[in-house]
Queue: 3 jobs
Job 1
Amino acid sequence: MKTQVAIVGAGPAGLLLGHLLRAEGIDCVVVERQTGDYVLTRIRAGVLERITVELMERLGLDARLKAEGLVEEGFNLADGERLIRIDVANLTGKTVVVYGQTEITRDLMDAAAPRGLQVIYEAGDVALHGIESDAPFLTYTQGGATQRIDARFIIGCDGFHGPSRKAIPGLNGNFGVAREFERVYPFGWLGILADVPPCHHELIYANHERGFALASMRSHTRSRYYIDVPLTERIEDWSDDRIWDELAVRLGPEAAANITRGPSIEKSIAPLRSYVFEPMRHGSLLLCGDAAHIVPPTGAKGLNLAASDVHYAAEALVGFFRRGDKEGICGYSAKALARVWKSERFSWSLTKLMHRFPEDGPFERKMQVAELDYIASSTAARTAIAENYVGLPV
């Protein structure tokens, strides 16, 4: 098979890029190692910045998002006793939308065939070849046979564990161009998803002496809650009742009074890390989303950073194929990384503010309390948080 752009990974980043390219008349194929049903079982983020919403609007795939998404004008930081509201709408003139990543993926997936976007699922042993040339190609296995896709560019949207990033020389101590920056956090987020109404109409990020908690929602009738736990914890040791009890303590009395308890429909523990890979382009390979960077979910940036990568990549590819402009391709990595690092900074700083680290003592705790008190009393501080939360310009 021959195409102009081969995309590895059919998560929201890969599908979004595929739709944007097809809308511009650029040939592309998406290759995914898992089944479509498996992709839809991934429980992920649900807070969409303006860039993500605008891309869905541009494609005309925002009907369900508009009908079912919850427009949020603010969110709250809690210090165990009070809620400190960050009025995003008044401070920035913008809003975010609560709409699950699974739903975004479903919308993009359902529109693929009608819009002529070819997606190949269950592609095994995906490998990238010739990325330093102008004629890269992919190989994969399916039905016992090896298949090949020749392209002009390959775009890696295959997540942290996919083969795309690993194809760039320099990993594992080998000489090359790659650089990695990483901060692994000493805790994970234990999440519970339940079909119960949320305890508050806006998200609550709580810093309690017992640890972090987050109250969020997927709809008016489905809630998503998190608490941080040591990495040594096992999900089997956390009954639903134990999680609800802990949430009631950490979220504070105001939120706890409105918690509706119910059976979990999903529970998991996700480790937290900050990670950036440079460069995000090598030869004819461009990386988007988790293939190049990971953020702790504290700042709600993961999916939205992938969307901004896709925006830059689509812009560069359209310029190349429509106008023969190579500058967008050459500048892709620097442009994308400038926004990535700012988002990494915000996610890291909010994680430091709202979590208790094992090495922290009384001094660090007093600093957190003082920072939260400053945020509560300073419009400038709340504005800075709001600007980052709603999403920096692309």
Job 2
Amino acid sequence: MITYVLEMLLATACGVLIGLERTMRMKSAGIRTHALLAVGACLITILSKYAFNTDANVADPARVAAQIIASVGFLGAGVIFREGDVLKGLSTAAGLWATSAVGMSIGAGEILLGIILTLLILFVQFIFHVFPAGFDAYSENEIVIILEKNDEVENKIKEISSQHQVKVKGRTLSKENGVVTIEYHLVHKYKCNIKEEFEKLIDYDCVKSIVLK
């Protein structure tokens, strides 16, 4: 019994560490979510190993633990949402799934594997936040520009975007009363100060609004 309690405490601690990193980055799933997921997965694994394994010829201790993976899928789906053409929350959902594996490892008695996995999760989440790569290198903050169709301003947007490594996430056209309106959704590199560059576009009469979210 004492061994099981220690394993659950360790799983909780690992979940807290992972959740702390998520909380510091203001993600939807934080300390409580990760801690509860880790300790829950740990206890279910312990129960699947011992409580339901009364007859080795009949019981399959892996069946209960296997349901954890499917259940975490529903939890992960709750933190994923679409904003425009981009899916958000995927890394949080993957972190929850991996955290369940931490709890399962510790519950199965593989303490070292659980600790190593915790460190790997923290390393991946932290290192690619400090040194982002690919699309992760672009800020989730958006620049939304709404303007009446104007080739000169559109070329100016392309020019600024090219100079400052800004990507076009979405471009929506609409027509009202014969006037074609374009809405640009842009994302930019972290630590890239392009606010002043885009704000200059407000001097054009065709530009209706510029919002830096």
Job 3
Amino acid sequence: MEIEIFSDVVCPWCFIGKRRLDRALAAPGGSDEAPLQGEVSLRWRPYQLYPNLPAQGVDRGEYLRRRYGEQADAGKIPQRIRQEAEAEGITLRFDRIRRTPNTLLAHQLLEFAYSAGLQHELSEALFLAYFCEGVDVGDRDALLEVAAAVGLDAGAAAEYLQQGTAVEEVRSQLTRAPEIGVSGVPGYYIANGFLLPGAQTSETMGQIIRRVRDRLQ
């Protein structure tokens, strides 16, 4: 059973949701039922929160001031996001983030990682790089460093990112989200027919996934 994960690299709730999904899939069900991991395949799909940003991204502090005024604090983490992240073992460091990137290139790299069987691992690494280390995940060289760290061939990844077909594939996939009712992220499309929106608790995610599985049997 496939779960398509609609996400953007710069979405903190997507990072939280990723950790919760991992826990949901690793947890046993009732009556000593085996975890869902062996029954589920994961497919990350692109979504862009800020599709109109320039390719090189923008200075984050300046971007926030334009949106929210001079009082905007680029290092401030909304309390609920901070608490929910910490509950999943994530220490967010917004103070380290210098740029708000255009994530189109990062989504292309995630497509490359899918063909190598490392898409889920790369998603975690990109979230950590951006939200915990302040890495500019819109920068090609920075992305290739993250790719190499999870075991991807950086040379092959660089060659892939230079191909026009890579960006065409991502742009084609970006149209899929609204077609199936995804209007925000994260969104989880289960078994090509059941949409679970938002960063639900791991318990809720596990229950819904099992319910869908049982309906399909």
